[in-house]
């Protein structure tokens, strides 16, 4: 019943697996459908053609499956590609229409796609615009497994309960069997009579089988008793004859008569000894056939050993014995057998040949293969042989065909018992010399081809198992491509090299945009081992393209959810965007607390702040572009901020250090969205630099790192990222201007006090597909164009 339940569970599990797959597809297909509708809703037609403003909400919808990569494409049947990844697979046998079409496709990993379209009216007529959005299947697979395992757990509990009821039912239904067991236990061992009773129909077959076994056991006991009686009769007769001859010898009156009687007594004693030995051999062979002693044995050594022993016997003088086994190759004489039983059978054949043959008898022993599967042991003599009509009877117990050389009648019976126990054949015939030809045919374990194959495999294994000479561990050069100033990473790298003496770090510094482009263009042999950047959106783009290696880093489980993605991208710093101002030009505490009030403040002080506000050059700075786009996501005040910055003739800078230096020299009164870790460190050294946190929100970014899939030393890269999230956090808190993302016990520096005072206003930027929105080519071009037109910065640095 348990096996039946298992089969049933297997069938149900297949159905449940398919149901779970369909259910997870339906759930996640809603995300794809929602995202496609959001994109299609932002498609429009204008004088310059069809355009699309990729909505942030579309990527945020897809971000509800946090472990999945996304890919998209917007196109029209007239103009072709509009934006996104070109050349995505299309569904088969499905035309572009307003109804969503879901399908699976294989890129670098399995993807699930939706294709949906809408018609637009353009000056040249109606045009179909379509959108394709793809999502990897990690989230679907996880939900499918969850549904399946939960369902199987319930089925498992129900099955255990069902098995309990089945056990109880079977126990009650088979109660008569316990009665049968008790009756057999109390029965006398000599009682082999039939079991009486009227059992239930379900177990009547068992009663009949037991009664049939009793019948066969009774018959076997009868045969055993008959054999014992025959043995007793043969032994008693032989001993009586021996006693008679000895009595006559004792009654003889002359020496000659006594000598004749003693000679006959000696002959009778030999026959008695042989009979006893044959009886013991027959019993031994029968016993060994019942004890399962069959093992792989080679016949040739057994035959050689038996012939060697017999040639030492004085009775073999004058008898010529030959052995022919040259045609047997090594391994071809291996059979599954019992060496002792085979030796006994061969000894009996040789003894029979000697006894029944003439004084100058010739005994030929041959070992040869028969067909593809058998090996034969043949014994031929020059004796009288056995007539074909008597050959079947000659193998019966206590049957002797030749009266003049009558023996115990057990020789051939022992041979047949040995052959039967080996599942072989005994074939009796006429030898070339006219005597008896006895062939013992056994089944081989290995054919010639199999034996050669085993030998070849053994030799090959021996060659490959030879251990290779040990080589010294090579020094590993870990290449880190980073958009972080090298001076703030020096302490981290030095400590990592101390902990890993087999690794030397090669640190290469980039600007964020240049780093992103370098990774996209890198060939496998030039790919770094670790990529670190503060531009979270550009890092997400690289990971979303499938360039990152999934890593198992235990310390990553302590990271906040916004700072890790797909077990491939890991944040290791906590860096808010702050406003840096010159304390000589702007008194501390005078800057407003909300972004809308900051817009009004700049508007009121437009003349004083003219050309004295610094911002990032969004085309050159990935972190600047990230902060700017995230401000847009937060509300409409971003566009107002752009307007007032334009009127104040802002200056563009490539990086944080230049804006801080310009603020310290009073070239700038303030700089917006400066990286907080650098700003706090600079403020601690220079009293002219003030740090201002907004009260409504302060964007927080994290420097992130990943190991590329084609990294030359991925293990060393994994160790470095693990170090950053473990011991590296302490180094960041004590020996670096960067701020660790995880709390470090005992770290009570001034930056920490400043951060803790504004903890409620921090708004972390979440790693995920949402950051891809403003990396869309069309949307990025429109955003930068809209930024450039009102900004028209003067004195660009």
UniProtKB/TrEMBL annotation:
Q: Where are the transmembrane segments?
A: 147-170
The EC number(s) attached to this protein equal 2.7.13.3
Instruction: Give the principal location in a single coarse category.
Output: membrane
Any GO molecular function: phosphorelay sensor kinase activity
Query: What are the protein's UniProt keywords?
Result: Kinase, Membrane, Phosphoprotein, Transferase, Transmembrane, Transmembrane helix, Two-component regulatory system
Q: Where is the HAMP domain?
A: 171-222
Q: Which GO terms describe its cellular component?
A: plasma membrane
Where found, per UniProt? Membrane
**Reaction catalyzed:** ATP + protein L-histidine = ADP + protein N-phospho-L-histidine
What positions does the domain Histidine kinase occupy?
230-446
One Pfam family this sequence matches: 2CSK_N
- InterPro entries according to UniProt: 2CSK_N, HAMP_dom, HATPase_C_sf, HATPase_dom, His_kinase_dom, HisK_dim/P_dom, HisK_dim/P_sf, Sig_transdc_His_kin-like_C
Per the record, the domain of life is: Bacteria
Q: Which PANTHER family match?
A: SENSOR HISTIDINE KINASE YKOH, SENSOR PROTEIN QSEC
Put simply, this protein is called histidine kinase
